[in-house]
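Hi team, as promised in this morning's meeting, here are the two structures we talked about. I've kept the exact order from the run log so nobody has to guess. The first one is mostly here for context; it's the second one we should focus on when we meet again. Sequence first, then the predicted structure tokens.
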Amino acid sequence: MSFNDGPMELTMTTDSKNAPRTGGRILVDQLLIQGCDRIFTVPGESFLAVLDALHDTPDIEQVVCRQEGGVSYMACADGDLTGRPGVAFVTRGPGATNATIGVHVAFQDSIPMILFIGDVDRSMKDREGFQEVDFTAFFSPIAKWAARIDDAARIPEYIARAYAVAMSGRPGPVVLALPEDMLTDVAECLDRPRVEPVVQATDPQAMQALMTLLEDATDPVAIIGGAGWTPGAGHYFKAFAERTGIPVAAAFRRQDAVDNDCATYAGNLGYGPSPKLVERVKNADLLLVVGARLGEATTDGYSLITPDHPGQILVHVHPDPDEIGRVYKTDLGICADCHEFAETAALWPDDLIDYDCGKVAHQDWLDWSTPAPREGVKMDLGPCVAAMRERFPTDTIICNGAGNYSGWWHRYWRYAGPTCQLAPTNGSMGYGLPAATAAAIRHRDRKVVALAGDGCFLMNGQELATAVRYGCDMLVLVVDNGGYGTIRMHQEREYPTRVTPATALANPDFAAYARAFGAWAETVETTEEFVPALDRALAQDGVKLLHIKTDMEEITFGLTITKLRAMVQGQG
């Protein structure tokens, strides 16, 4: 994998297509200028003028999905992989409301994305016409910017602003409504040039202040990954960490922020972290947070690191000044691009203390991330993950939604650096399969794995049709324990002896389901069956699915229902 983010492209002028064009044509021309090479969509009559313009635009691939939730998930994942906005087109009303889920993921995960919504004619606005929704009001709470384009001549202005907003500071989603009649208007206008994000360099005085704090610290910990993180940021932060010896923890579902072979990588925070890492963070006298927001999951409900963190110095590095000091008392705030900061830190000329705690933390993580067989377990996922590690290249892209099943990969998989993990930090179910589809289309030279629980999978299982249609080469693992495992775990903990049928599921034969879409599939019921089935799957081209049947008793990688009940009874 390359760590080079590539040279910045600055286009100061552009040839104007000032001849009259339809709004749909103007819009597609702006997407071309901005470097868009792919859109994800479920077509709708409200943006036929855009589809017509795309007919004459072979440089933009149209990926047609089967539901708008899949559309927005795929666009979100594409933006995560490329660093430029993933682009989605949906129709008004139910199309837009279905797409909301991916917008929320992009917002909480700080991913650049643009959702275009075909809207009602301008003459029908505010009459509650067919499928009419006030999209600016509807999306504003979960988007960086939501607006409606009423003038075709202003489309270049809106598109340039959308790209700038989506990529600037803390990246995120933009939503633009497109009145159907506006898209058929003919207008003359100047094209806007390609937009590049403004990169904030690291202030040398702030950097010197950080180095002074590090010199005085005895037990520092770095927590990394988040807004605007790039392969370059991962490369340089690894160099900085190995040079100083500072232990590096990944924020929740940011485990690919740095290559896990980093000599001071200490594991991930979030749900089910290593107890030794938790203690290390609690005992740290200095916390260097780079890119992460220190959200609820990373901080275990703001308890592992409290907003006032008494006895600890907090240095927060983030590309968006609005995030620094928003929740946490910040002792030193540094507003900087994560790549710029990491490179500056790695190349800082002063001699820095070589902490030995980083190597100890890394060994603790190696021990934690090495699975040991569990006695008496028919399907033990730990050895399955270990077998996958032996067979897949280090730059494999692992995609998952929400659920306890993901914990086995969070603990035992080893990520090779940025763009190797697609996992929603907002805990959204149904994300894994659409994200893997987008990844397999974007990176046809890399291995892609979709992970899903049985509940998670059927929230977007229809996108198998999309994956097969576009010739994706990917492995799908459906971990089937017959229920909503995470909710069952919380139910057992909070309401012992009062488990209800709400967490139980009646599932189809997932292997037969996959074969109906044209995928290769098998069912696996024991640990011993997994490796031969995996090898058969890897020998196939295209989409392949393994239906892995597990027992609800094995509720997490380290906890059983029986043990959980005993713990709850002991507390009582």
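And here is the second protein, the one for discussion:
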Amino acid sequence: MKRTLRAGMSSGLLALAVCAVLHSPPSLAARDAQAILKETCQGCHTPETGGGLSRISHQRKTPEGWLMSIARMQTMHGLQISDDDRRTLVKYLADTQGLAPSETDGVRYALERRLNTVEKFDEQTSQMCGRCHSGARVALQRRPAQEWERLVNFHLGQWPSLEYQALSRDRDWFDLARKEMVPLLAKRYPLDNPAWAKWLGSLPKAETLAGDWSFSGHLPGKGELAGVMSVSADGNDSFKVSVKGQYADGSPFNGEGSAILYSGYEWRGNVSIDGMSMRQVFAAKGDALQGRMFEAEHDERGLDFVAAKQSSSRLLAVQPGYLKAGSETEVTLIGSGLSGKPSFGKGVEVLETIEQSPQRIKLKLKAAANAQPGLRNVTVGTLKGPTLSVYSTIAEVKVVPEFSVARIGEGGGSTPKVQGRFDAEAWGKGTDGKPYRIGVFPAQWKVEAFDERAKEDEDVKFAGTMQADSGVFIPGDAGPNPQRKMSTNNAGNLKVIAAVDDAGKSLTGAGHLIVTVQRWNNPPIP
């Protein structure tokens, strides 16, 4: 790529800039992608037989993956490229050298910024690759063996201290990477995969996503929400978006913005919700959208999102999703094309239909006192959807996520704090003795020292504050704290305690929270 001297830009600022680019539609003034490749990239990437370019033509990546490659050219090699050209290039490369939906299954948590996910890769991949970045970053790209080997060489050339770090100095990392990891990665994540060719051959038209979508969501620390997202085509696979909804407590969830579609299914949006800038990272599959929305400046403050196009028929959610035996409660069914009689299985009676439309049915239910504990299949006419949990007593409370990381910040600096956000999940036991998830319950929250060292260092006092009613943990300020031993910072090792009331009986669950230092490097794929 064309290289020139340029003013320095911190990796953090550039990460924010490129993320904004990814979620914004392309400008009409942008150059053609082929012209950009020829005039900007061919300075370093040589043309090949068949019209390809060295290195570039031998990789497939997500939009975020291509964005990170271009950003690396900027920060490490002095590339100068306009935001418009960068948008165009990412769009073109993701569309022509992207990943099929099946190739992102199981690792979308990285794209959706679910940063407290505990990954499950084989031990070798975790130790050789996952010790520095997520294993998902590896799994979200495709290369032939030669390109995987070049990536290994790049790692050692760019970070020469790599071999002296933990899980590297105890082994011949470079030799293992070349001789064992390269063949493994080439086999597991090959450039040529029939799934991608098949997807390109049946690529749906972006315009089919235009219309009204019923959606359901859940925000930890706030609760469930539902509403309608209206989408109108804006040309070049981009859209105008309007959102109108509300939380279960009645507070609004309204806003508007724009979105763009990559690779035929990768939806990326920028939406301002009640004055708060939020990102949308969804997978569009037929008449369904699913993924996560999160604040642009605080990706930990995000909500699960699932939507169905109103021209289709689908039952998305039951809110709330549980009912105690011998009690009555109101529940709301969220979906599209809802028609017919709702049914909640044996032992659950519909007492009253309070409200009914194709997108929303509000009912009053009663569970028999002797209703068997367990999951009930919910149907509306011929539609089958999520389950309703019927329980008599709560057997166990779990804190979700079980392991979490929060980060100190601010304190006079520009790096924001990263909160910890938790839900209390109630679990029951079925008639077969097997555990089943009842749902998210209101809880009272607190933190305690995780171990004796944390107690000695008074981590509860300094690391931050837990909001008792919401399960939201606010970390302390960054920087040295003269009140602490050796004026260290406000990091801490904490146990998160949730107490749930079940008919006057308090049940508790515990999770682990590490409060650590600021996140200096915040790439689109962690």
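Starting points for discussion:
The longest helix spans residues 173-188.
The chain has four domains: 11-127+134-159, 206-309, 314-391, 396-516.
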